[in-house]
Amino acid sequence: MQWWQEAVVYQIYVRSFADGDGDGVGDLGGIRSRLGYLELLGVDTLWLTPFYTSPMADHGYDVADPRGVDPVFGDLDAFDALVEAAHEHTLRITVDLVPNHTSSEHEWFRAALDSAPGSPERARYHFKPGRGATGDDPPNNWQSVFGGSAWTRVADPDGGQGEWYLHLFSPDQPDLNWSNPEVWADLEKTMRFWLDRGVDGFRLDVAHGMSKPEGLPNALYPPSKLLADAGGDRADPRFNHAGVHEIHRKIRSVLDAYPGRMTVGELRVADDNRFAEYLRDDELHLGVDVRLAKAPFDAAAVREAIERTLAAVATTSTVPTWTLANHDMSRPASRYGGGAAGGARARAMALVLLALPGTVYVYTGDELGLPDVDLPDEALQDPVWERSGHKERGRDANRVPIPWDGGQPGYGFTTGVPWLPMPPEYGALTAAAQLEDTASTLSLYRRAIELRRNHPGFKGGSELEWFGAPDGCLAFRRAGSTLVCALNTSKASVPLPPGEVLLSSGPLVNGMLPPDTAAWLA
Ligand code: TEU
Questions:
Q1: What is the pLDDT of residue 228?
Q2: CA 124/CA 179 separation, integer angstroms
Q3: CA distances (Å), 472 to each of 298, 299, 333, 339, in order?
Q4: First and final CA of the chain: distance in angstroms?
Q5: Residue 95: in which H helix or E strand, if any?
Q6: Contact, 30 vs 68, CB < 8 A?
Q7: 461-521: same fold as 107-166?
Q8: What span, in angstroms and rounded, lies between the C-alpha atoms of 181 and 178?
Q9: Which of 178, 389, 432, 512 has the fewest CB atoms within 10 Å, i.e. the most exposed one?
């Protein structure tokens, strides 16, 4: 068993975790100062979102220099110090890589703008003439995931209206042309750069992107940004193109020279068979699966998501991955209904999550039960807000900084002004307050992670056995194990399966499992 096949990975949204220098933005030094907390929580691996040099149009997913640290996050010395300290705390470190696109401030893209159509500088991206007599229409009908056309027109070096370039995300994130060998050579250099500095693995952003079909043909359906998530759809030419697998084989060949290091791909691929293709023995080690995170709080839907995730990896030699959220999704406490019920359901789902075989991802702040924050319009920073013409508020609500202790404005996250306002209700949810409260969400996560690591009931295989359960409920155990996880999403209390209760997500009532509650039994 490799370490990544049974890890509890904690996703750090670097901007929002801990601010070491008082500028209101989280940084690498801040993370280093909070490693003790992560050790207490019991996670074994960290995933850091991009901390590379960036103008921050998409908060770091627009990378201007993939081998440099942005000054707002620290410098290379701070990174090296963090890796060393994390390893001393027996925490592994995985970092994001963004191979699909660069920032428009990347030196390659600046050079492309200064060069003529047809030049080698432009050939690193997708530049094309427009359609129509004067080239005023974009080269095809592709839409940006963030809204609007996926094409932006540039002025030619001589000042006239010129070519268009492709950006599946914001215009500040031009897509790289992966049929250009320079693009791979540069990613390989970047991977070796960070591997040689001691990282334990990579999360590959948009791992179903990169490769594009020859000639960039029109999409055949009415374009809609929602189709970004339907990557399994063969009619969507933007993502999941067959050529991507050759890229993953190259990535894997680099990793194979660094035993014990791994890659996990962000795979927005709805079709189970196509998902599995990325997990062949010479491609990714793991794929991020958001099926469970997308399921509503309903036992039948949760069971279906779990079974589909298991089915998607059943033909591979890898393991399933599970998560309830990430930096792109509404937080569980809000998604499951908000208020006291939403909080209780998020806690119940945490026990489902942590009972499952394979690798688990916990998004920073979910262990505190943080809700999404209702931010005022003027605070919003996600490019989705502007790109959608203010129709979609974007992802800032689930990226508000972590409350550590004390009160407003910074709650121990920063001595300055936090980059997104932290609300009054954070006072009761700080890590410090929850560490002292045995009934807190944080205490539940700590206990559950500890049991997951040490209890023999978790040593079972990767198949699940399902028990008969009342309507709106589910119960399962790993094949060969005695530990049962039961979840009640119905409106009535139900009898518990037989066994000693090891942990429950809320109080049991007269030995019954109440609504919005889960329990582990041995
Ligand atoms: O997200 C890729 C993605 O496919 C989008 O659908 C994303 O889910 C977005 O939330 C839609 O609003 C990755 C990163 O996780 C995301 O944070 C970046 O913005 C994006 O890539 C571009 O790098």
A1: 47
A2: 9
A3: 7, 5, 19, 21
A4: 24
A5: strand 92-97
A6: no
A7: no
A8: 7
A9: 389
Q: Indicate which residue of 172, 186, 266, 283 is catalytic.
A: 266
Q: Where are the domains of the chain?
A: 107-166, 461-521
- 3-class DSSP assignment, residue 103: coil
Closest Cα to atom 9 of ligand 1? 328
Look up the pTM and report it: 0.97
Q: Could you read off the pLDDT of 146-194 as tens digits, one per residue?
A: 888 999 999 987 788 899 999 999 999 999 999 999 999 999 999 999 9
Helix (H/G/I), strand (E/B), else coil: 314: helix
Which run of H or of E encompasses 92? Answer: strand 92-97
pLDDT at residue 5 above 80? yes
pLDDT tens string 446-480: 999 999 999 988 887 788 999 999 999 999 999 88
Mean of all residue pLDDT scores within the chain: 95
The answer to whether 276 and 467 are in contact (CB under 8 A) is no
> To which H or E segment does residue 341 belong?
helix 339-355
Which pLDDT does position 387 carry in this prediction?
84
Which CATH class, in words, describes the domain spanning 461-521? Answer: mainly beta
CA-CA-CA-CA torsion sign (386, 387, 389, 392) = negative
At 225, the pLDDT band (50, 70, 90 cuts) reads very low
pLDDT digits (tens, 9 = 90+) for 315-368: 999 999 999 999 999 999 999 999 999 999 999 999 999 999 999 999 999 999
Residue 219 pLDDT level (bands cut at 50, 70, 90): confident
> Is the distance from CB of 467 to CB of 475 less than 8 angstroms?
yes
Distance 457 CA to ligand 1 centre (A): 36
Closest among 130, 137, 142, 101 to 224, alpha carbons compared: 142
Ranges of H-type helices in 42-139: 76-88, 107-113
pLDDT at 154: 96
Ligand 1 pocket check for 86: Cβ under 6 Å: no
Q: Is there a catalytic annotation at residue 121?
A: no
- Ligand 1 centroid to residue 319 C-alpha, Å: 23
The dotted CATH code for 107-166 is: 3.90.400.10
pLDDT confidence of 226, banded at 50, 70, 90? very low
Q: State how far Cα 264 lies from the chain centre.
A: 10
* 185 membership: H or E segment, kind and range: helix 181-196
Residue 351 contacts residue 520 (beta carbons within 8 Å): yes
- Ligand 1 pocket residue status of 205, Cβ below 6 Å: yes
Q: Across 167-315, where does the E strand assignment appear?
A: 201-204, 262-266, 286-288
Q: Is the CB of 458 under 6 A from ligand 1?
A: no
Question: What's the confidence (pLDDT) of residue 233?
Answer: 60
Phi, psi for residue 320 in degrees, rounded to 5: -70, 155
- Closest residue by Cα to residue 12 from 37, 104, 22, 447: 37
